[in-house]
TrEMBL record:
This is Soluble scavenger receptor cysteine-rich domain-containing protein SSC5D. The gene is Dmbt1_8. GO terms for molecular function: serine-type endopeptidase activity. The keyword Glycoprotein applies. Keywords: Disulfide bond, Glycoprotein, Receptor, Repeat, Secreted, Signal. It comes from the Eukaryota. SUPFAM superfamilies: SRCR-like. GO terms for biological process: zymogen activation. Its main location: secreted. The keyword Transmembrane does not apply. It comes from Stercorarius parasiticus (Parasitic jaeger). SMART domains: SR (SM00202). Binds to extracellular matrix proteins. Binds to pathogen-associated molecular patterns (PAMPs) present on the cell walls of Gram-positive and Gram-negative bacteria and fungi, behaving as a pattern recognition receptor (PRR). Induces bacterial and fungal aggregation and subsequent inhibition of PAMP-induced cytokine release. Does not possess intrinsic bactericidal activity. May play a role in the innate defense and homeostasis of certain epithelial surfaces.
Length: 333
């Protein structure tokens, strides 16, 4: 005994549409935990996808794209070459050693998930690969799309083609700058269900009377920022200060300021991705909530990953009114 080759450590993808896309979780000491996205890239995702028998990696999303984990963060600074048989073989920090929070959980999208990324369309000039001016590849040359008849149905197809979630907006008039090169497509008319723009009704390649001022753009939902977790700060000067509200039973509610202090604020600030706390305020400093009061007598020790891990009264049980709503101000903005 003792000479057997260890099995590759168990690994899974959670929060995605199927077992081949989602947040990466690894099992260590009989506990599942997530992986921090520092240095996370396609080589790391490739190892995960192969390990799960899910084909090649398509994307390596960062920023808790498939929701935030709840347990330990097991791995950080993972640096695979892409040929390892298991994630546990890749160089990384020691188990549990990290400088991350769950808003930085790494994910993998594998080919067998059914999510594919088109190489013939791209978004340029925007803040991320999922927003910008639409460009399509034809005969080896990238060109733009004219905004005639451009609307959310076409944007929806582009977002799907890029594995970028749903379309938030279809923007005309070179919102993300004027392209160079040819204007390839015009009068694109999609139903919104097509797999690619070229399946939509459209004029022949290059046949149009447009100029680059009319270049079409789209903004898709799947940008590299942490999804809104079940907690938020509202009515403050920025997203890192305000009245604390938590989501329970699909309903947002406030937190009573009884026993509210800097340790509670520390957990909230970390959970919303806003760094360290500057102050823990009471007395509805940022206005009164209008719905239910969900939490009271919250007592965090300051090290919890989430306010839901702190001691408190049962959901909805309190002796407060909205004039006692709790607020925080965090260092981030």
């Amino acid at each position: 005994a003792g000479t057997e080759i260890p099995e590759p450590g168990p690994i899974r993808l959670v929060g995605g549409p199927n077992r081949c896309a989602g947040r990466v979780e690894v099992l260590h000491e009989e506990q599942w935990g997530s992986v921090c996205h520092d240095d996370w890239d396609l080589n790391d995702a490739q190892v995960v996808c192969k390990q799960l028998g899910c084909g090649d990696a398509v994307l390596a999303p960062i920023g808790a794209k498939f929701g935030r984990g709840f347990e330990t963060i097991w791995l950080d600074d993972v640096n695979c070459t892409g040929v390892e048989a298991a994630l546990s073989e890749c160089p990384a920090r020691p188990w549990g050693d990290h400088n991350c929070y769950h808003g930085e959980d790494a994910s993998a999208i594998c080919a067998d998930s059914g999510i594919t990324i088109s190489t013939s369309v791209r978004l340029v000039g925007g803040p991320s690969r999922c927003s910008g001016r639409v460009e399509v590849l034809h005969n080896g040359v990238w060109g733009t799309v004219c905004d005639d008849q451009w609307d959310l149905r076409e944007a929806k197809v582009v977002c799907r083609q890029l594995g970028c979630g749903t379309a938030l907006s279809a923007l005309p008039e070179s919102k993300y700058g004027e392209g160079k090169g040819p204007i390839w497509l015009s009068d694109v008319n999609c139903k919104g269900t097509e797999a690619s723009l070229t399946e939509c009704e459209v004029k022949p390649w290059g046949d149009n009377i447009c100029n680059h001022v009319e270049d079409a753009s789209v903004e898709c939902s799947e940008v590299d920022i942490p999804e809104e977790g079940p907690i938020r700060l509202v009515d403050g000067p920025n997203k890192c200060a305000g009245r604390v509200e938590v989501l329970h039973d699909n309903r947002w509610g406030s937190v009573c300021d009884d026993h509210w202090d800097l340790k509670d604020a520390k957990v909230v600030c970390k959970q919303v991705g806003c760094g360290s706390p500057l102050s823990a305020l009471g007395g509805a400093r940022y206005g009164r909530g209008s719905d239910i009061i969900w939490l009271d007598d919250v007592d965090c020790n300051g090290t919890e990953e989430s306010i839901f891990d702190c001691k408190a009264r049962p959901w909805g049980e309190h002796n407060c009114y909205h004039g006692e709503d709790a607020d925080v101000v965090c260092a981030g903005n």
